[in-house]
Specification:
Elements (H helix, E strand, L loop, with lengths): L4 H21 L5 H20 L10 H22 L6 H19 L1 H6 L7 H20 L23 H21 L1
Helix pairs in contact: 1-2, 1-7, 2-4, 2-7, 3-4, 6-7
Length: 186
């Protein structure tokens, strides 16, 4: 990642922590939690590696090509999962964005190192719009909703910490912010 080294290291820490939490979600007894946790863990760790400041680590082109292959496989897996649930489309977009960034780094590393490009490529702009909207939508979903006095059978049982939907949403939100930032400095 280009830009200030401190920002890069903070993004590495955030993405690695998100990936680690997603690995823990894979142990959940709730099938819906396990369903997407593996792909999200791969995204978190992959983004952490990609966010390492360029001054510290600049891999050769073949590493970026391998990265594109790994995330190309993750894209195929996400496409397979879309047939069962449309909410996996976000995973398809995320993995395709990782493939796009890896290919861009493998093909034109000098242009990215010196930021000599003229303007923002159209695909980068589309991905920035998508992830910007995703971040806003996910953030709005975290705003607390006041409880209603509709009555009922009391409060529902508390979910285990690995099964809490709002924590998974925060992880997706943090990865969306990181993806937006990575695309912005690309």
């Amino acid at each position: 990642m280009h830009g200030p080294a401190l920002a890069g290291w903070l993004m590495v820490a955030l993405c690695a922590a998100t990936g680690a939490y997603c690995l823990l979600r894979m142990r959940s007894p709730v099938a819906a939690q396990r369903e997407s946790a593996g792909g999200e863990a791969l995204m978190g760790f992959g983004m952490a590696v990609m966010a390492v400041p360029a001054a510290v680590l600049w891999p050769p082109w073949w590493v970026w090509a391998g990265y594109a292959l790994v995330f190309g496989g993750a894209t195929l897996r996400a496409l397979w999962a879309v047939r069962g649930a449309a909410h996996h489309l976000h995973h398809v977009v995320g993995t395709l964005a990782m493939v796009y960034m890896a290919v861009a780094m493998a093909v034109t590393p000098a242009a990215h190192a010196g930021h000599t490009g003229a303007g923002v490529p159209m695909l980068t702009g589309v991905l920035l719009l998508y992830f910007g909207g995703y971040v806003l939508r996910s953030g709005a979903r975290l705003v607390p909703v006041p409880a209603t006095a509709a009555g009922g059978g009391g409060t529902p049982p508390a979910a285990a910490w690995g099964d809490r939907a709002e924590i998974a949403t925060v992880c997706r939100l943090s990865m969306g912010i990181a993806m937006f930032a990575m695309l912005l400095v690309m």
